[in-house]
Amino acid sequence: MRNIALATAMAVSLSLVACGGGGGDDADGGRAQRTLLQNKGSDTLVNVAQAWAEAYREVDPSVAVAVTGGGSGTGISALINGTVDLANTSRSMKDKEIEKARQNGIEPVEHIVGYDALAVYVHKDNPIESITFAQLAAIYGEGGTTKTWDQLGITVPGAKDGKIVRVSRQNNSGTYAYFKKAVLRKDGEYKLGSLDMHGSKDVVDLVMKTPGAIGYSGLAYATHEVKLVPVARDDGAPAVMPTVATAIDRSYPIARPLFMYTRGQPEGAVATYLDWILSNDGQTIILDKGYAPVRAPVRDDLR
Amino acid sequence: MFERTELNARNDRTQALVKVLFGVMTVLLALPVLIILGMLVVRGGPMISWEFLTADPTNGMTEGGIYPALVGTIWLVSVALLISVPIGIAAALYLSEYARDTWMTRAINLAIINLAGVPSIVHALFGVGAFVLFFKFGTSILAASLTLAIMTLPVVIVATRESLQAVPHEFREACWNMGATRWQTIRRIVLPNSISGILTGVILEVSRTAGETAPIMFTGAAMFLPFLPQSVMDQTMALSLHLFAISTQVTDVPEELPYGVALVLIGLVLALNAVSIGFRTWLRGRKKW
Known about the structure:
The complex is a heterodimer. By secondary structure, chain A is of the alpha/beta class. Chain A has ten helices and eleven strands. Chain A has two domains: 149 residues, Periplasmic binding protein-like II (D-Maltodextrin-Binding Protein, domain 2); 140 residues, D-Maltodextrin-Binding Protein, domain 2, CATH 3.40.190.10. In chain A, the strands form two sheets. In chain A, strands 1, 2, 3, 4, 6, 7, 8, 9 and 11 form a nine-stranded mixed beta sheet that branches. A two-stranded parallel sheet of chain A has the order 5-10. Chain B has a single domain, classed as MetI-like (MetI-like fold), CATH 1.10.3720. In chain B, helix 3 crosses helix 10. Chain B is globular and about 80 Å long.
């Protein structure tokens, strides 16, 4: 009798395994060999990349695109290791990284797939009307002295002691690197003591809930619950509201290109996919997600 | 016969107080579980439908279902079990039934305990280095499940060893005295008497495997891949990573959606557990001691 018990135990555990494994085959059964493209990287681009992958099912059902986020650094290191076909980044690869890829026999090729306006977010009760690069550097940069909203001449209702709560990003983020380069300028470093979030959306969520907060994140993450601050490059320059239109005509000062890197010149399915991304259809999708397309407006309702 | 003294009364009061206090602690212990489950059922319950379970996610993962993630999790758990259960049970059998108490086995035991204490993100990085890059499995179910299997091996080994040692030693001695070999003893006496405990270990492993996010994030799970895996060399979506993605990366997700996904994840684990708990109870009922 004990034998039977043991045998059944094994049978059950095996059938658990079998039913799990079997589940995969039925729905898609009979489909011809599928090409799998690996697409990984920037959290800024991840939602666009996901939308592209989703729409591409209709265009070519024989190609499956696997999308994963994690940050520009994640995508680049995967490209260096040769585990992705397309790396999404919101910054260019550094010379050091290109060198490393070459050592592994991989020649990274850069493709601009769109532009992103990096918006400055504050709580919706914050009365601020515009902000300059110098003011941002004084808030975020090392050696900057701006610690309270009073120093900018405004009072924010609900902010504890008028203190500015600085919201920033983790240091392997492309957004972090770009904001540093664009706003803090050369050699600029971030002041310690900011709240470093691990995603574009987290920054906006936190600013939304914190009256004294200021944060930077992609324009695509804007909601009605937060306020976008127009940004001026210099004291005399006009403050420009971040919108898709001002990112396209480059009048908004913190707009950056978004990249996809391929291993060598794209070929086969990768090339077809990239061409489609840059086509009217692909570019309409990036526009719908709140980013600026590579070429001038692809639709009439834009301007 | 005896008079109740002041001391008796005081002892009774203390006794009553302690009982109430410990009772409250026990209820407090169960409270978080009830709150979590309650929240999930109340907020996520309305999300659950046949369509939710069997449709692909659509519209930037804010609508549609979770089918590829559900199937992916089942794949990951199954392959991980296939790898870790046989290895874990064999190792536990050796350690418990064959190995002598030498520095070698002590070192191995220590290693197993330490393996259980390694944070899952470290397992994840090990998985990338070993399975994805060195063995060139790529980001695949195989690499992810191997990582999960290594991570959960200590659970299986420890649970199996405990239940093997719970079998009274007299049983083995009686068997050996009949002239049975060690293997015959294990096969006929030790294993049948400890199978319910071993299943407990497997249950624990299933729960942990299905819920882990870090180890599969870099080794085999994709945030978005609306196709079902066709072999262990494919990448896949998974419920835990899907939950992570829709709560932290995707914008405009309906508030109830993450609750629905979490409810399905917990439901899947509970369903798998229920099967083996039922089986275990049945086995225990047949135990002769």
